Amino acid sequence: MRGVAADADVDASVVSHYFGSKQGLFTAAAALPIDPEAVLAELLDGPRGPVTADAPCPSASAG
């Protein structure tokens, strides 16, 4: 944790305060930026149809 604190240019006690332990720091660092369950539910609730080579990619229209 001292190495992370040094890289962040903060005192190690700050890292300890926010993350509690090495395990807490690792858990926060490895956390997914999305909720896989919510994404999967959204995908499963979406439209269904035949898959063809010329079908538009749904994510291409998002934005």
From TrEMBL:
Gene3D superfamilies found in the cross-reference section: Tetracycline Repressor, domain 2 (1.10.357.10)
Domain of life: Bacteria
This protein's name: TetR family transcriptional regulator
Origin species: Streptomyces sp. 900116325
